[in-house]
Amino acid sequence: MSTREYDLVVIGAGPVGENVADRAVQGGLSVAIVESELVGGECSYWACMPSKALLRAGSALRAARDVGGAAQAVTGQVDVAATLKRRDAIVHEWNDASQVEWLQSAGIDLVRGHGRLSGERQVTVTDADGRATVLVARHAVAVSTGTAALLPDIPGLRDARPWTSREATGVRDVPASLAILGGGVVGSEMATLFASFGTAVTVIARSGLLGGVEAFAGEAVKQALTDAGADVRTGVEVESVERIASGDVVLSLSDGSEVRAAELLVATGRVPRSQDLGVDAVGLEPGAWLDVDDTLRVRGFDWLYAVGDVNHRVLLTHQGKYQARAAGDVIAARALGRAVDEAPWGAHVATADHSAVPQVVFTDPEVAAVGHTEASARAAGIGIRVLDYDLSWVAGASTHADHYRGQARAIVDEERRVLIGATFVGPDVAELLHAATIAIVGEVPIDRLWHAVPSYPTLSEVWLRWLEAWGR
């Protein structure tokens, strides 16, 4: 068993771990990063990148069909084989050589194998051949191991060999039919994707679609899926699952009905990858979320950090990378005795996790949201005014598509007269989101926004319509 020493040891070389390591190196520390799978992590190979690559073909085709002149040129359906080939190129055929080269160029040492905490400031890495290497951290260990798919405790489910998001985004043979358990982001996006492939899709979503955003967003996605031929069932639960002799999966539902499909995708949530992390060696519970303060340090420790999904603050790659920048910088500052800026919106804290989290759902239609919903703002006791506008009434909508349908909602704090939430639903609304994020983070006064003139004719003119509804 060999021993190596670094200032910082990072467990998990996904985009979050990479950013923690990079910022710490830039801050003057020596860093080792541990990875048991592919450098680049879930997002690069099994989540964000492949899913959006797969969804794009159907999105582009729908957009072309709604523009006179382009619609007449569309002569077929999504080419599934070509779409999968493009996905393969984007994930580099699940080869991480380019990511490894980047680590080397950034001055970060890669240690391949499964890393476990084995004591204070100590990580033991076991490689594929069973060889162990002990990494000793002079200053800190950062856990960036992310999450795995949750499989609910439903009789027969595990024996039915269901898909998780990994199998869905890595699909090679597209099934003729697919049942999807769960109506969150993954379930809704994968329903959109496989419907575009011509698969017969059935979604079982007990509480409806996209429960974390404004209700009108989930309803719009449900309607689009129904229009695309999907069967969306809400208000029912799966009571049992069986993989029958023919190879199909049969789901028995609480209303007495059954759903039969070639494959079953489970998209009911995520669990932290902390079960086999050795956290019990330092007094923490295996399989639990790692609770952190705003500098991403695990509470009760002065050397242990948890960054990204594993801390359960926000399960989004871009927010994890935001946390990573703060964590890498503060680890370096503390290690080298520099000043630490822990004030709200300071350089070393992840303040935006609490009030300005942006998210895009790449369904049909797209859903883009940041900050509060009406329900969350009222639950927080904030006096608000809700500004709604039909996006199809904006001049840019008529030039964008022949039958544009969309909706936008702004949530304004009446006392402070600032935007605290925004939701957009419609084709290509993702590109509207960052302006709203900036307005919320910057606490831009409504009166000042009158002087931020939207270009004409674009969808951004909705900002002017909101202001007109607010009044001066």
UniProtKB/TrEMBL annotation:
SUPFAM superfamilies: FAD/NAD(P)-binding domain (SSF51905), FAD/NAD-linked reductases, dimerisation (C-terminal) domain (SSF55424)
InterPro entries: Class-I_Pyr_Nuc-Dis_Oxidored, FAD/NAD-bd_sf, FAD/NAD-binding_dom, FAD/NAD-linked_Rdtase_dimer_sf, Pyr_nuc-diS_OxRdtase, Pyr_nucl-diS_OxRdtase_dimer
Superkingdom to which the source organism belongs: Bacteria
Keywords assigned: FAD, Flavoprotein, NAD
Domain FAD/NAD(P)-binding: 6-320
Cofactor(s) annotated in UniProt: FAD
Domain Pyridine nucleotide-disulphide oxidoreductase dimerisation: 357-463
Family under the similarity heading: Belongs to the class-I pyridine nucleotide-disulfide oxidoreductase family.
Protein name from the UniProt record: NAD(P)/FAD-dependent oxidoreductase
Species of the source: Microbacterium salsuginis
Source lineage: Bacteria, Bacillati, Actinomycetota, Actinomycetes, Micrococcales
